[in-house]
Amino acid sequence: METLEFIIYPDGRVQEKVTGIVGASCAEVTAAIEAQLGQVLKHEPTSEYFAAKVQESNVANTQNTYSDW
């Protein structure tokens, strides 16, 4: 599940936490929001940022062997 969490501090700072998005696509998801919030002071990539997307294949390799035994 993809989630965006925002913590707004009394001094106006906003902390944003993105979970459930693998790879750098989280930057695409948050770019418009960050543009509206103002200056970004720091980015801290999580382990999900560095994770590779896993692609599953539905192709099954089969081999039929016939014998004259």
From TrEMBL:
Family annotation (InterPro entries): DUF2997
Organism this protein belongs to: Nostoc paludosum FACHB-159
Protein name: DUF2997 domain-containing protein
Pfam family membership, one: DUF2997
Domain of life the protein comes from: Bacteria
